[in-house]
């Protein structure tokens, strides 16, 4: 196993000039020895390009790849000692399951008793023990892909095992089991694993560290909790979570009597400390708050935004409420107790997740949305202004 360092960029076209010419914009990042990583992002963001650069299938157009401090940029996947699992099974149909699993070890001249022990262990982990003597040809697509996973995991001496959307062909129920199994296997085998997916549930279940990518950029590397609580980039807030983070336009004004925080044109109590300074410097910003952390309160409650309920959905395990916060330009916020879906349809739709046992608000009513808490994040153009829990005062705006 190895620590993997990337300091590179990649463009498929010669002579790249602008950001959009790059599949991977200049980046520096490390995969720690023995870590379980997911590369997560929408189609075309550069996940496979990064994986292929790590494996050696692709040479970066700029920069280098190092394994344990040694420059391996010019080395092939074999010389880098990388195992790979692809979307579709890569196995020998004429061999038995045991022979397929043993193949990468036989190729390396591993002793037969060692091969037997390792194949037995991997088969047990993947629940293939009962099929070891069956020919692969007669097996289902699921079982074949499990063999591919096993072949990727069977060697103990690999620098890393790379997975490119390996559960695509797997039946949804088994997919759920296999994700958890892969995590368990990682804990037992302690291999460095890098896993490409566009599915956040898959990434969050499997990986200790998730690399969130968009448009050729790795915008955050962090644990599931860090990506949820402190998205460092608006894209992470939007992409992680169900539904994603709410964003509201804000500005911070320094008045003689103190700082004034305006969100969607409504006055709120400003945060304190370093964040207040950052907001003042930024002037304009976006306030980010997850649907789980918006409190529904009485309209007119101190520090709450007035909004109109425009949708109430029963999602089964929770209520999803959508409330429209009018912007200053739309005129005054809806009157207290107003019952019609009033005013202009413009503004910002804020999603609120309520527990299933809560009583949801009535469609068309005016509500208060408490968006400021220790979970609230603030963003400049895209990046988070300060990566720490904001200190929010409890008292009313002066
Ligand atoms: N061989 C290639 N030649 C030219 N452009 C390519 C090539 N492979 C990928 N690209 C482009 O590079 C960008 C990143 O592609 P990449 O396949 O790495 O993304 P991805 O995140 O893995 O997407 P997907 O999930 O759809 O596989 C895309 O704009 C893609 O069109």
| Structure annotation, total helices | 10
The major sheet is characterized as: 6 strands, mixed
Radius of gyration: 26 Å
Mean pLDDT: 90
What strand order characterises the main sheet? Answer: 6-7-8-3-9-10
Helix fraction? 10-25%
Give the names of the bound compounds.
adenosine-5'-triphosphate
Global geometry: elongated
Number-wise, the strands total 22
Question: Describe it for me?
Answer:
The protein has 398 residues and is of the alpha+beta class. It is built from 10 helices and 22 strands. The protein has a 6-stranded mixed sheet, sandwiched between helices. A 5-stranded antiparallel sheet has the order 13-12-11-15-21. Strand 17 and strand 18 form a beta hairpin. Helix 3 (97-107) packs across helix 4 (112-125) and helix 3 (97-107) runs parallel beside helix 5. Mean pLDDT is 90; it is low at 330-344. Bound molecules: adenosine-5'-triphosphate. Adenosine-5'-triphosphate binds at residues 12, 23, 41, 43-49, 198.
């Amino acid at each position: 196993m190895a620590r993997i360092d990337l300091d590179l960029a990649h463009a498929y076209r010669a002579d790249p000039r602008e950001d959009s010419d790059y599949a991977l914009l200049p980046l520096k990042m490390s995969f720690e020895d023995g870590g379980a990583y997911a590369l997560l992002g929408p189609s075309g963001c550069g996940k496979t390009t990064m994986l292929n650069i790590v494996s050696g299938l692709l040479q970066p157009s700029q920069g280098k790849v190092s394994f344990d401090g040694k420059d391996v940029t010019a080395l092939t996947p074999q010389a880098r000692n990388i195992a790979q699992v692809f979307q579709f099974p890569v196995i020998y149909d004429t061999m038995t399951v045991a022979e397929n699993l043993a193949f990468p070890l036989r190729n390396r001249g591993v002793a037969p008793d060692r091969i037997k022990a390792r194949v037995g262990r991997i088969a047990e982990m993947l629940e293939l023990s009962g099929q070891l003597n069956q020919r692969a040809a007669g097996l289902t697509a699921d079982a074949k892909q499990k063999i591919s996973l096993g072949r990727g995991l069977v060697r103990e001496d690999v620098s890393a095992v790379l997975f490119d959307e390996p559960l695509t062909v797997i039946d949804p129920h088994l997919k759920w089991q296999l994700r958890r199994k892969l995590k368990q296997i990682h804990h037992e085998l302690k291999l460095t694993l890098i896993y490409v997916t566009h599915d956040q549930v898959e990434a969050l279940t499997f990986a200790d560290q998730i690399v969130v990518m968009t448009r050729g950029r790795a915008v955050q590397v962090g644990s599931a909790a860090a990506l949820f609580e402190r998205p460092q980039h608006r894209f992470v807030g939007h992409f992680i979570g169900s539904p994603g983070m709410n964003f509201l336009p804000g500005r911070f004004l320094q008045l003689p009597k103190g700082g004034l925080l305006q969100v969607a044109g409504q006055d709120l109590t400003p945060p304190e400390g370093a964040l207040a300074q950052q907001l003042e410097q930024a002037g304009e910003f976006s306030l980010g708050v997850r649907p789980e952390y918006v409190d529904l309160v009485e309209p007119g409650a101190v520090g709450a935004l007035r909004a109109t309920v425009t949708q109430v959905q029963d999602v089964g395990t929770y209520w999803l409420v959508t409330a429209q916060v009018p912007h200053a330009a739309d005129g005054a916020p809806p009157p207290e107790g107003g019952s019609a879906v009033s005013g202009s349809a413009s503004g910002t739709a804020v999603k609120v997740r309520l527990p299933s046992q809560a009583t949801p608000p009535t469609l068309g009513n005016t509500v208060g949305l408490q968006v400021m808490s220790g979970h609230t994040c603030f963003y400049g153009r895209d990046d988070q202004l300060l990566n720490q829990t904001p200190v929010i005062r409890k008292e009313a705006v002066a």
